[in-house]
Amino acid sequence: MERDLYTAEHEAFRETVRTFLAKEVLPHHDRWERDGVVSRDVWRAAGRQGLLGLAVPQEYGGGGTEDFRYSAVLIEEFARAGASGVALSLHNDIVGPYLTRLATDEQKRRWLPGFTSGETVTAIAMTEPGAGSDLQGIRTTATDRGDHYLLNGAKTFISNGILADLVVVVARTTPEGGSSGQSLLVVERGTEGFERGRNLDKIGQKAQDTAELFFDDVRVPKENLLGGEHQAFAALMANLAQERLAIAVGAAAAAEHVLELTRAYVKQREAFGRPLARLQHIRFEIAEMATECAVTRTFVDRCVTEHGAGRLDAVHASMAKWWATELQKRVVDRCLQLHGGYGYMTEYQVARAFLDSRVQTIYGGTTEIMKEIIGRALLA
Q: Among 1, 153, 183, 279, which residue carries the largest CB count within 10 Å?
């Protein structure tokens, strides 16, 4: 069935994204995976191409559109290309809303031009060594010292952690902590006491720099408080639906792409004197995965539409996130099996997709947390 989610303008933007990937990303991605980090040049190239800050007002160099479908196109094309190193969606769809919705006019003038040009790479620091999906368990503290906060603590698994010039940090600003005592502080590269640990060695998404961050008596000026004091938890809850939808969009696209690769593979690969595609078991496997992908695509597209209308709630965003990522993991695993020994070779896209996909059911809220959110809402 033909998708009716996108207009001709969205499809024209898709061609722009594909051209950008072919020219600026794919020729370099293998090297970035060996390096464990992408070049800053690709961020500046993305800025020149208009791929950064799609929802940022035009006065700051952004695209000036609230239409999330443009972000969805970007996410889909990067997922299909297997370009996991350049975390544009993290920058645009996760950090971006905090800066556009919560920042003061003065903060916007300081931060958004670099955000949209690619000169300023961003990250958000929520996860801690002892607090993953449980945001209420955050222990990083920010003590009010008059004209500044004194920030102390550690964060881990921070995407863009090595490259980031601007980090939105979630910290406790009341002694008791909890959901009512957290604030968002923006820490800038070079601030005294702000240190980066190692670039973490992951099983997949090797080109995407993921780091530990340490804050030792970091003086954060009050001018870098993002939103109201003690208001972080509400802001986090408001933005998590879009984050989870973005992950679901990428997961659905990645599953579809790996299935396409596998369909082509089983048509040309022979066993026992005939193509694999002529074996009934193979046909059943492909039929099952194609059906699951089609059903998932329909639901995720509907969630994108609901989000655009301002109606997507936490429950349906959580449904989309856990279902699409679990589907991706399952489809990639089955497709690798159909490739046989070649599927285990990293020169094949299915092998890299297998490694890259595993984290999808973990970050942005684990599958188990997604089910807990849904279950609590349905049984309240």
A: 183
